[in-house]
Amino acid sequence: MPEPLKLPNASGSLELYTPGPPGVFEKPTRAFTRRKLFAAAHVVADPRFTPDPHKPPHLDWQATLEYRHHLWSHGFAIAEAMDTAQRGMGLDWATAKTLITHSAKEARAVGGGLSAGAGTDQLPPLSQGLPTLEQIATAYLEQCEFIEAEGGQVILMASRHLAAVARNAGDFEHLYDRVLSQIRQPLILHWLGEMFDPELAGYWGSRNLDEAARTVHGLIAAHSSKVDGIKISLLDAQREIDFRRGLPAGVRMYTGDDFNYAELIQGDEQGHSDGLLGIFDAIAPAASSAFCALERDDWETYNALLAPTVALSRHIFESPTYNYKTGVVFLAYLNGFQAHFHMIGGMENTRSSLHLCELFKLADRAGLLRDPDLASARMSHRLSLAGIL
């Protein structure tokens, strides 16, 4: 039994907490067939370099790629170079290209699934002026071509440049028509809500989500042979269900709802969502075991395994939601997947010590501290550095 450790509470005092034993989770022996599941994977910064926002970030390539093997071993495909990997928050396109190349090579070696985010972040930042729609389309197509050449499936990420330049839904329709007409393999569209990135407010040409949904439905209907599915990250379960029911046959709904994924993936009598989630990075063992249960229609086990992970996920993704990456990386650090808690751009400092302590307790209750003694030692070390212990 691990020794109790002292954790601060909201009143400012310290209380003893003793973590329990790690969970016992089932690993898949074959590929999942009932749902298609992607884990958006984080990256590990190299702590030997000082973060510099004006230079490409330095990654610890060994730890970054080893974590992808961890996710593949639990049956997940990898969604590479997405917002979980700090795309748009420190991970630039030049470094993302290297990451995609390395991950694609590792995926081929183990037969792991890989998709990757294509955006427009090779364009100059918006502070330097607005690009044209033609420049945005060219940027998208350049990234799509690179990903397809590496053998990956394209995830067409929402573009800050397009959000700033597009005047109406017609501009979005015209640009996406052009991209979808030129890709070789069906891709995954991505609708990322403003809670994840405030610069994407009004995406698809309207702040009215019903109007935006009609635009996207029309776009998918016109290009259904080029759309494998759409990932929606709006943290609104009923809106996702309504949207899912309007999709053409054969087009998947990939939930990006890190609050309601358990019920959305379980589905109802009219269908279900598949999954493309950042939280899968953090909860892979428990989620994988739950999806093993789903394969045999054991819904009691499915829900018992995922329920405590939902509580953890809701905490990690609490407002401001875009800082969720900090919790994902901290849990990887607690579990010994990386030797330090450093992130690109110093993002390890975007969550409070109280937030990280609650994360520690919720991860423990979900059985996700694989070595409680190590996790306790690292939690105590973090609090000591913060001047709390």
Query: Which segments are poorly predicted (pLDDT under 50) over 5 or more consecutive residues?
Result: none
Helix coverage percent = 40-55%
- Count the E strands: 10
What is the 3D form?
globular
Strand content: 5-15%
Return the structural class: alpha/beta
Distance between the termini: 22 Å
CATH superfamily caption: Aldolase class I
Largest sheet: 8 strands, parallel, barrel
Q: CATH fold name, please?
A: TIM Barrel
Strand order of the largest sheet: 3-4-5-6-7-8-9-10
The arrangement of helices and strands along the chain is EEEHEHEHEHHEHEHEHEHHHHH
Number of H- or I-type helical stretches: 13
Tell me the name of the CATH class: Alpha Beta
Q: Mind telling me which CATH architecture this is?
A: Alpha-Beta Barrel
Radius of gyration: 20 Å
Count of the domains: 1
Let me know the average pLDDT: 96
Describe this structure as you would to a colleague.
The chain has 389 residues and is an alpha/beta fold. It has one domain: Aldolase class I (TIM Barrel, Alpha-Beta Barrel). 44% of the residues lie in helices and 12% in strands. It contains 13 helices and ten strands. It has an eight-stranded parallel beta barrel with strand order 3-4-5-6-7-8-9-10, surrounded by five helices. A two-stranded antiparallel sheet has the order 1-2. Helix 1 links the parallel strand 3 and strand 4. Helix 9 packs antiparallel against helix 10. The longest helix has 18 residues. The protein is globular. The mean pLDDT is 96.
